Amino acid sequence: MCVYVMCICMCVVCVVCVLCLVCVWSMTTVSLSLSLSLSLHGGKTT
Predict the structure, then answer these.
(1) Is 34 left (phi over 0), alpha (psi -120 to 50) or beta?
(2) Which of the residues 15, 26, 31, 44 has the least number of beta carbons within 10 Å of its own beta carbon?
(3) Cα 13 to Cα 6, 45, 46, distances in angstroms
(4) E runs forming strands in the chain
């Protein structure tokens, strides 16, 4: 996993824009899946 701050720095410098996009995408995907699984888990346990 990459560090979000590093992603922002990469975007600003734009030396590895593709890597930055991949990083941001993976971070967003992980966050969404965690939120979704938590919501589903919470809904099922009730």
Answers:
(1) alpha
(2) 44
(3) 11, 46, 47
(4) none
pLDDT tens, residue by residue, 1-46: 456 666 665 556 655 666 667 777 888 888 899 888 888 877 665 5
Contact 7, 15 (CB under 8 A): no
**Residue recorded with tokens 């995907």:** 29
Q: Are 8 and 33 in contact (CB under 8 A)?
A: no
Quote the pLDDT of residue 14: 56
- 24, 6 Cβ separation under 8 angstroms: no
Predicted TM-score (pTM) of the model is 0.46
